[in-house]
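Protocol step 4 of 5: obtain the predicted structure for the target chain.
Materials: sequence only (see below). No template structures provided, no constraints applied. The aim of this step is simply to have a reference model before the mutagenesis design in step 5. Sequence pasted as it appears in the construct record:
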Amino acid sequence: MTHTPYEVLFLCTGNSARSILAEAITNNLSITQGKFRGFSAGSHPKDEINPFAIDVLKHSRMLTDGLRSKSWDEFTQEDAPKLDFVFTVCDQVAGEQCPYWPGQPMTAHWGVPDPAAVEGSDEKKRKAFVDTFFVLRRRIELFACLPFKSLDRLALKERLTA
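Step 4 output (structure tokens):
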């Protein structure tokens, strides 16, 4: 991994909330600009992105153009981005058999509670999405600050899973 931007894939079952938030955060933060390119996918993608996810992103002034729920199969194709990192962001995908990722990207699990599973008022749901947004944002900011060039693969893998 000596090139930038690093290609980062975030996985979740439905690819409608957490992984979408992580993709958008990665592609919109100034700390990640030019260093990372984020993508997201799901093992069983939904037909649409959760509207609360789009709401939180727009409220945070993040671009949402081009975001869509998609299958992780897109990233196993010959013309797919050459992934450097693959992060699962939900417990369901962590236990599933993931596809083979060409190039042997580093993988880690960043389990985050599912905001789409929250029941109750719209305000309660919105708060769950905001909380998830900030958890993912902080993890991505910390990830972006790792000294990639000075860490060997094993040391980097340890830091990603800590």
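Step 4 remarks: The chain has one domain: 6-157. The chain has a mean pLDDT of 87.
Proceed to step 5.
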